[in-house]
Amino acid sequence: MKKRLLALFALLVLVQLAVPAGMILRRELTLATGETFRFRTAPIDPYDPFRGRYVTLRLEAATSPAPPGESFRAGEWVYALLGEDAEGFARFTGITRSRPEGGAWLRVRVVYGGGDGTVHLKLPFDRYYAEESAAPQIERAYWRHSRRESREAWVTVRVRAGRGVLEELYLDGLPVGEYLARELATGEG
Amino acid sequence: MSKKAIRWLHDELPKLVEAGLLPPDEAEAIARHYGPLEKEGRPSVGVLLCSILGAALIGLGIILLLAHNWQSLGRPLRVVLSFAPLMLGQALTGWVILRRGESRAWCEGSAVFLMGAVGASIALVGQTYHISGDPESFLLVWMLLSVPLVYLPGSSTAAALTWVGLTFWAAMASEYGGSGLQAAFWLLAALAGPHLWRVVRESPRSPRAAFLLWVLGGCLCVATGLTLKRAFPGAWVPAYGGLFASLYLLDRAWAPREAPLWRRPCRLIGAAGIVILCLMLTFDLGWRFASWAHYRQVWQQSGFSPAWLGQVALVLTLAGLALALLVRTLRRRQGGLLFGAAGAVVPTGYLLASVVPADLLSLILFNLYLAALGVGTLRAGLRGAELGTVNGGLIILTLMITARFFDSDLPFTLRGILFILIGAGFLAANLVARKRRRER
Question: Is B102 exposed, middle or buried (0-12, 13-18, 19+ CB in 10 A)?
């Protein structure tokens, strides 16, 4: 009797391990083999992007031109096609309801369809988790580098088969860790 | 001889018999000589609570340590750390199943710890990969992975926690922008049903059964509204009517009558629910979205999806269950017909209001029924000299009369006099009941 209980428990153990393991494997695969895109962060108006132990990112590219004549509901899942602008930053070139055949694309949700032919999207990478002591510094630096005059903050995202995984946050051209180290060395922050 | 030694002896004796070193009847004699393996008696509530709280606190402490988000470690190491609480919890629970399966304290504690660990693991992975929050699916996955713990190692706390978690999930799913799958709550909550059935069957009087029923009753009260409110206009009326009447009649069928009130959650929740529901239905406002006028003019059905059919089926099931239990109670001449009749009165009132172009009939019906409930409860309390029941009846009547006062335009003097009369009535009834009790 006990053997049967143990066997059932072993099965439960496997299922419980499979869920986080699956999450990890899918994302590692995307990080290893996905195409890299840089998403610029949107200019900050007086709005606190810091919530708890993560920094909320507002990305510029979160809108896309809509195909003429079609309307999209809030909360609807669509496929957004990715391209690059003149400066090498990511932008969406269009959205469709059917899975695209080739090219880079992301599966995203519609926030609302603007009447002017653009659709606002909710991107799946809108937060950057940081250590609780580092987060305030990152927040301040993020503000500094996201104002309209100086726009040198972006995130790199790996894209594969519709899934985007956030790789790193760059401030003033440096990865966050190195940027903070530099600030520490020069006595700022 | 110590418990550990006895356990060792009982483990070893079969092996010796198998190896041919000891004939079976001698082995039995030895076992009998040292006494049977004492099944651990029901643990005291204190020990149980300590075990559950201790496990929960340790789990939370580990979560906080790991939530520090050790950014200085590389991602691979953080991935390994994400698995740490989960594997720890699983190892602990496995050991409990193997060695301490009879101890309820160990079973409950390890199950609670493992439940927390599962959620922590998923959250930690999310933190490592900067996964955007989606609390609805996170909660659903967490609960689904926790349900088996109700049976392996066997924990009532896990059952209660999964019911609460699923209720929160249903709330998120029914919000604007949610998945809309909240009706699945009933199916998922039923997964822990067999455990509840077994506990109630074995010991209907125990605190454990009462605890499970209180939690389930509370969750059902919330979930009925969340999952069935969009079935059709006023679906909440037959749904809640069926739910409360069923709970009340089930208690009558199962629980022994002499148990104190807090050990009969179904009765309390059922009765209170029926009173509040009927009170709401004596107001004009309650019918505004459920009645004939609304059906005719306002309601637009946007297609017969399977989800919608499922919701309608659930409402009908609840109402049908109450009716079936009522018929059973009538046939067996059991008590509880006064409140149990709600199973028939509520659907009748609802149908009346939906079919007849005047709410007045239903309003009168529920006023009469509520008055009957109050008077009936009062009479039962006076007859049995139970103060609690007497006051319960008086409260029902007071609520009803108060409601009618705020409804109508009686002058203040009249209202004042009537309130004084009711207050005097309260006191008089209490005195009579006390006198009768002293006479016994």
Answer: exposed
